[in-house]
Specification:
alpha/beta, Rossmann fold, binds S-adenosylmethionine
């Protein structure tokens, strides 16, 4: 763990690795070889390795392709089994990355049944948004660039709209979710997304966002080892002062309070693992 903590200090995020020119050059070799093999083996269209590495690799920085192809399925199993969404739902995924969750929904087939609702992905990274728009059917999947400030994920293009989820109408969405987005947001952006999620959700709709919950990390024995979250910016606890958005944690009451303040009728923190989830109903 001491080694892991040292590596974290030296390389606060794989996002920095993914933008390194040497890594990008080497990643082209992986794309042309293992990437094509993984595509053939899984039937899932693979983004370039440098895009996958910007969004999370499941502890495998050179060959995360199988992780990309499989990790998204569990999310839908959870949402569908809990009745938070179904194959006809309108769904928003904020910080959608290069479509790991969306791909599992796009490729879902059971007999003749497939996804017939609408999925809206939002991200701050132009290259990822462009890649997704080129690899998902536009009749059921829309990806948009959003405005945001980040030391780690610089907004890389002109946002399509100032108001973050502006392409979505008020009261039109069944589920808003994010995977590993709130773990990279300082308070202003986080509050904005909670407010916008409330606006777009139908009454009774759900918001489910993963985040680092300080109390759960402590209970799980993860504080003081891989994570310290020793620095504070407003009510956010950050791991690295130079790159605050590399990893951000919140106290349970703070995040629940933010959701209550915008009007959610129920808000709780569930599923304490490495990241917990904030689950709210409008
Ligand atoms: C750790 S990745 C997770 C990606 C995706 N949810 C997944 O599970 O593969 C975080 C994503 O959030 C995006 N992001 C970071 N800050 C953001 C912001 N302020 N608004 C929207 N997206 C943001 C990044 O570009 C990145 O794609």
């Amino acid at each position: 763990m001491a080694v892991e903590s040292l590596v974290r200090k030296l390389i606060p995020s794989t996002v920095l690795v993914a933008r390194n020119p040497l890594f990008c050059a080497a990643s082209c070799v992986v794309d042309a070889t293992y990437g094509r093999y993984a595509e053939w083996r899984t039937g899932v269209k693979m983004p370039p390795l440098r895009y996958i590495v910007r969004t999370g690799v499941g502890n495998n920085i050179l060959f995360p392709h199988l992780y990309y192809a499989t990790a998204g399925h569990k999310v839908w199993q959870y949402f569908f089994s809990e009745g938070l969404a179904n194959l006809e739902s309108n769904i928003v995924d904020i910080g959608c990355g290069c479509g790991k969750s969306g791909a599992a929904l796009r490729d879902f087939r059971y007999a003749d049944v497939e996804f017939s609702g609408h999925y809206y992905g939002f991200d701050i990274d132009t290259a990822l948004v462009d890649w997704c728009n080129g690899h998902f059917p536009p009749d059921h999947f829309t990806f948009s660039l959003v405005n945001g400030k980040s030391s780690l994920y610089p907004a890389s293009g002109k946002p399509q709209a100032e108001k973050s989820l502006a392409v979505c109408q008020d009261n039109s969405i069944d589920l808003v979710f994010s995977q590993s987005l709130f773990s990279h947001l300082l308070e202003e952006d986080l509050e904005n997304y909670v407010r916008e999620s409330f606006r777009v959700l139908k009454p009774g709709g759900a918001m489910c966002m993963t985040f680092f919950c300080l109390e759960d990390l402590e209970t799980l024995g993860l504080l003081g080892q891989r994570w310290s979250f020793a620095h504070k910016i407003g009510r956010a606890y950050v791991e690295n002062e130079a790159f605050p958005e590399a990893a951000v944690a919140y106290e349970r009451d703070v995040i629940v309070g933010l959701a209550q303040a915008v009007g959610f009728s129920s808000s709780k923190v569930i599923l304490p693992t490495y990241q917990s989830s904030l689950l709210c109903k409008k």
